[in-house]
Design brief:
Blueprint (H helix, E strand, L loop, with lengths): L8 H12 L2 H13 L3 H29 L6 H5 L9 H31 L8 H13 L1 H21 L1 H28 L5 H8 L3 H7 L1 H14 L7 H6 L8 H29 L9 H13 L3 H35 L3 H21 L16 H26 L6 H8 L12 H24 L4 H19 L11
Helix pairs in contact: 1-8, 1-13, 1-15, 2-13, 3-11, 3-13, 3-17, 5-7, 5-15, 5-16, 5-17, 6-14, 7-8, 7-15, 7-16, 8-13, 8-15, 9-13, 14-15, 15-16, 17-19, 17-20, 19-20
Length: 488
């Protein structure tokens, strides 16, 4: 089948940025900013985006565009004969499926809360009632199934139409609506009475706060957020690179996507942080900030029903942009590996992902006794851990080594592809950094994720999981070994 192409440069940038822009930007970034002291954290975050996220996203786009394939077959097309790089595809394919097994459900939460806000369910509700409504949602599997399946059908419906007429056309509208809603909400937030202190916290660096939170904690938090916000490592960017022509250099396109992703994260903080200060709410409230803390704020705000509806619609659009991007990758797996038509791949995956989403949904009720990562955890935590703490960082390390090491695709092929076309060129001066330093930074992020997850548990549990982490790292890096003896 002839490879589909984007209809416009704007379409490519908005769709790719939409895949990168997700709930990590608009849900996690504001509460991490609150947790780690505000503007000083943001400055370090921006630095790590430039030196950590941008080079890896260029690698992923380059592999996708050069191969004209999804990650299911891109390594096969570019690797030296007899090498094992292509084995990483199974990890990446698993990662895409595991991600949407819980992300589709969370997208359903956002859409459901938009509906609840619009119908006035939270008007005059007390803080205790809002918390109870959130818990009731999690304990009702039928509600979760309905809204999850609705999100799956909407997302696959977009993918089924095609790249240009479906994914590109619809996601342009979704992304422009998302950006427009953000601007409106940010203006409303910063004009609230009492928001000035929140603006100072958010915009003026206070390095004393950074010291109070622990300089190492703040730096590592910023590094992790900068890495995970772009959703790199499991082919989400490669698939859109495969739909791209060679008229523009990939560094310039990647920079545009990183800047748009960053703009959304910063605007999300501008919405949340001043509003929290205006109503005397702790901005470091953690994941509950979205579903418990912010609805409490909207109930106190003039026109809160409208502002709350817009806020959750914005969150839904952010989730939808990522889900559609991952679904497009999943659809391409069937097309590249098994030569399915687009519609056949969509139909099979609607059923498959609906079934695969059920354990996560039931993990809050029927399967709540299953606590895979320790007391208080659930199936969603396990799925998130597998993707965020394992597949994304390890996949990124493999991309880096594939693009820089001579037993992989190699630096010369990578730099030629990255710099093909007009626009900003990739700096060759950082070759040593990308080859010998950046992979180790990502490995440290990977191992620190294991440490943070299990260090507070018993010593036997902690040691067991750290051994598992090292074994998984060794297994994945085995694909980078030199090609077999005897192959030319």
């Amino acid at each position: 089948m002839k490879r589909e192409k984007f209809g416009s440069r704007l379409g490519f940038i908005l769709v790719s940025a939409g895949c990168a822009i997700g709930l990590g930007n608009v849900w996690k970034f504001p509460y991490m900013t609150g947790m780690y002291g505000g503007a000083a954290f943001i400055l370090i975050y921006l630095l790590f985006l430039a030196i950590l996220g941008l080079p890896i996203i260029v690698c992923e786009f380059s592999v996708g565009r050069a191969s004209q394939k999804s990650i299911a077959t891109s390594y096969n097309a570019l690797e030296p004969v007899g090498s094992r790089w292509h084995n990483i595809r199974w990890l990446a394919i698993a990662g895409n499926y595991i991600l949407v097994m819980f992300y589709s459900m969370v997208g359903g939460w956002m859409l459901y809360y938009c509906f609840r806000m619009a119908k006035g369910e939270f008007v005059q509700a007390t803080a205790a009632q809002i918390t109870e409504k959130y818990n009731d949602m999690l304990l009702n599997p039928w509600i979760l199934v309905f809204w999850t399946v609705l999100v799956i059908l909407i997302s696959f419906g977009i993918c089924s139409i095609g790249l240009q007429k479906g994914v590109e056309k619809v996601m342009k509208v979704v992304m422009l609506c998302l950006l427009g809603i953000m601007v409106v909400l940010a203006i409303r937030s910063v004009t609230l009475s009492g928001s000035a202190e929140g603006l100072r916290f958010y915009l003026i660096p206070d390095f004393e706060r950074m010291v109070d939170n622990g300089i190492g904690n703040v730096i590592f938090g910023a590094m992790s957020q900068a890495f995970f916000t772009l959703s790199i490592g499991m082919g989400g960017m490669a698939i859109f690179g495969s739909y791209l022509d060679r008229s523009r250099s990939l560094t310039g396109e990647s920079l545009s996507i990183v800047l748009l992703d960053t703009f959304v994260a910063l605007m999300a903080g501008l919405i949340v942080i001043p509003a929290c200060f205006a109503f005397g709410v702790e901005p470091a409230a953690g994941p509950g900030l979205v579903f418990i803390t912010l609805p409490n704020i909207f109930t106190q705000m003039a026109g809160g029903r409208i502002w709350g509806s817009l806020f959750f619609l914005f969150l839904f659009f952010a989730a939808l942009s990522t889900i559609v991007g991952v679904f497009e990758n999943i659809v391409s797996f069937g097309m590249d590996l098994f030569h399915f038509s687009r519609k056949k791949s969509v139909a099979i995956n609607i059923v498959l992902i609906t079934v695969l989403s059920l354990p996560c949904i039931l993990g809050f009720s029927v399967l709540s006794d299953f606590q895979p990562l320790g007391a208080g955890t659930n199936i969603m935590d396990l799925e998130d851990f597998l993707v965020s703490n394992n597949i994304l960082p390890l996949g990124s390390v493999v991309y880096l080594m594939f693009c820089t090491h001579k037993n992989g695709w190699g630096w010369n092929h990578f730099i030629k592809e990255a710099n093909s076309g007009n626009g900003l060129k990739f700096p060759q001066i950082i070759r040593g950094y990308m080859t010998y330093v950046l992979p180790w930074i990502v490995v440290i992020i990977y191992l620190k994720g294991y440490y943070d997850m299990f260090s507070k548990q018993s010593t036997p549990v902690f040691v067991t999981w750290m051994i598992i982490g090292f074994l998984f790292l060794t297994l994945v890096l085995s694909v980078t070994r030199r090609k077999k003896t005897g192959n030319k």
